[in-house]
Design goal:
alpha/beta, globular, 412 residues, 5-stranded mixed beta sheet, 6-stranded mixed beta sheet, single chain
Length: 412
């Protein structure tokens, strides 16, 4: 496996040294103190240590009496605070320690993952690279959560239909929001920058179970200067409304056109040679690939159609890549490779042996995502890619793997 990316947590002591929340660096429990998501053998009481919020000055610890449910919730919040602090101020030396702390917590609190790890005989990894990764398909078969979920995100399904939806049980929404906004700020617009948005992607109100819809709504709240509601609804794509919105653009102010790839391609197909010229400084952000479009297109061809249809350069086009099973996203500008944020690391693995691929060799992608603090931090996908200079090149899916992604919504 070849790793790419960097990351670390940012909670610090008085000297500025990164630290983990008290009680989470090396924690062990005898079997009788292990908590199961589905069953608790008896309502015993146990003393635990809860740290002050990560990043506060003069941190203190408090001893409290807690039942297993309270203990799990407190540990989850402490780790969530650590990840949020890490997102705010990353340090490349501490990713490993935080990833291992999250793994230990998930091994204790996530019953299906505990069984998965035990079957593989790898319960004590020495580095983040060794953390056992569940297949992404496990999110279709099991509830992979360390406690009660505040959101259950569902994938848009696969070409085999909605019955094949993955479900991601998120226990700490603040971590996902912090990562979504910070990733967008790194790759697309800096904080406090406002643009008029024109959207052809899911939004929370219309797609409450969509993680992409949640992210789009957060981004619009933070950056939108007054664009209309999304033209992609459960009824399908309103291509005529989207075209009229582009016709009415005030040429003096840059806009941000955000859509699932299939929706933008369908728009350009429908207008049959019609062209727009977006204002100087505008951006097109797409996601989801060609699933739901009539033909599979190489990324170079998609870029060409965007250049011709919207009157922009490659540097004004940003592609977002994410999965329901991940809390983090990767971004690529123009034809450049994808960049992962510091809180996400990407491994390229041999699909037969799981051994590390040499740089440039094609393998399947494995993700170590600190944002998945309440589910599973390590996920093995069927996506193909390779490490190239400056990032990760995505190359599609393993042959015969199911097509999946939010662009399937545009086929309604």
């Amino acid at each position: 496996m070849v790793g790419w990316g960097c990351g670390a947590m940012a909670a610090t002591d008085a000297r500025g040294t990164a630290t983990l929340p008290a009680g989470l660096e090396k924690t062990s429990r005898s079997p009788e103190y292990q908590y199961s998501r589905t069953t608790t053998s008896r309502p015993f009481m146990n003393r635990i240590v809860v740290s002050a919020t990560a990043g506060r000055a003069d941190p203190r610890t408090t001893m409290i009496e807690a039942s297993p449910d309270i203990e799990a919730s407190s540990a989850d919040r402490a780790l969530a605070d650590a990840v949020i602090a890490f997102i705010a101020a990353s340090s490349a030396t501490e990713f490993d320690r935080l990833a291992l702390a999250i793994h230990r917590y998930q091994y204790r609190r996530n019953a299906p993952y505990h069984r998965f790890v035990d079957r593989g005989g790898r319960s004590t990894p020495r580095s983040w690279r060794d953390i056992p990764a569940v297949p992404a398909d496990a999110f279709r078969e099991s509830t992979l959560a360390c406690g009660p979920a505040v959101r259950v995100y569902e994938s848009s399904g696969t070409t085999r239909g909605p019955a094949r939806r993955a479900r991601h049980h998120v226990t700490e929404l603040a971590v996902y929001e912090a990562a979504a906004l910070a990733g967008f700020h790194r790759a697309v617009l800096p904080p406090a920058t406002r643009r008029r948005f024109i959207v052809a992607a899911p939004e929370r109100d219309a797609y409450p179970a969509s993680s992409l819809g949640e992210m789009v709504s957060w981004i619009r709240h933070e950056h939108d200067a007054g664009g209309p509601p999304s033209f992609l609804t459960p009824a399908g794509l309103d291509g005529s409304g989207l075209a009229r919105a582009l016709d009415r653009i005030d040429g003096s102010e840059p806009i941000l056109l955000l859509g699932v790839t299939a929706a933008l391609l369908r728009l350009l197909d429908a207008v049959a040679g019609r062209r727009w010229r977006l204002p100087v400084g505008s951006l097109v952000v797409d996601t989801g690939g060609c699933k739901g479009h009539d033909e599979e297109l190489a990324r170079a061809e998609i870029l060409r159609r965007y250049r011709e249809g919207f009157g922009i350069d490659d540097d004004q086009i940003v592609n977002e890549y994410g999965m329901t099973e991940l809390g983090s996203q990767l971004y690529a500008r123009g034809s450049r490779p994808f960049q992962a944020p510091p809180w996400l690391r990407v491994l390229v693995c041999d699909p037969l042996t799981s051994a590390e691929c040499s740089p440039g060799d094609v393998g399947v992608l494995r993700y170590l995502d600190l944002v998945n603090v309440g589910s599973v931090v390590a996920i093995q996908t069927e996506d193909l890619g390779r490490v190239v200079e400056g990032g990760i090149e995505l190359l599609g899916r393993v042959p015969h793997a199911e097509a999946r992604g939010c662009s399937l919504l545009a086929s309604v």
